[in-house]
Structure to design on (124 residues):
C-alpha cells in the first residue's frame, strides 16, 4: 500500500512539475554573442527570440532606472517596464532575458503603464 501511495504521489508531482510555469524576466550584463550581433542600436525597444526555445531577449534603451514586472492575461504576457529617475541625460541599454511559458502566444510591453510598440522583432 505504501508503494502504491508513493507511486501516486510521485506521478502527481511529475505532472505538476511538467505544467509549472517557467515564466521569468531578469536583467543580464553578459549575453550570447548571437544576441549582440542582432542588436540594433537605433531601436528603443527590441525583442529577440531564440528559435525553438522558450527564451527571448528584450533590449530597451532609456534614461533612468528601469524596474520590471510580468503579468499574464489569458494567453497574453504583459511585460511592465517602469522608468524612474530620468534626470540623467545618458541613455543606457538594458538587456533582459525572458523565459517564456509555452501556453502564452502574445507579448505586450508596457512602458510606464502604456502599451508600447516594439521597434524590431528578430529571430536567432
Amino acid at each position: 500500500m505504501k508503494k502504491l501511495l508513493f507511486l501516486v504521489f510521485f506521478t502527481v508531482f511529475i505532472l505538476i512539475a511538467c505544467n509549472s510555469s517557467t515564466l521569468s524576466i531578469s536583467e543580464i550584463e553578459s549575453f550570447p554573442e548571437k544576441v549582440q550581433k542582432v542588436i540594433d542600436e537605433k531601436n528603443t525597444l527590441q525583442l529577440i527570440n531564440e528559435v525553438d526555445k522558450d527564451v527571448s531577449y528584450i533590449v530597451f534603451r532609456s534614461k533612468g532606472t528601469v524596474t520590471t514586472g510580468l503579468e499574464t492575461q489569458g494567453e497574453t504576457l504583459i511585460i511592465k517596464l517602469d522608468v524612474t529617475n530620468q534626470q540623467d541625460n545618458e541613455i543606457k541599454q538594458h538587456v533582459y532575458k525572458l523565459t517564456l511559458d509555452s501556453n502564452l502566444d502574445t507579448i505586450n510591453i508596457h512602458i510606464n503603464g502604456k502599451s508600447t510598440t516594439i521597434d524590431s522583432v528578430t529571430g536567432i
Summary: The mean pLDDT is 84. The longest strand covers residues 65-73.
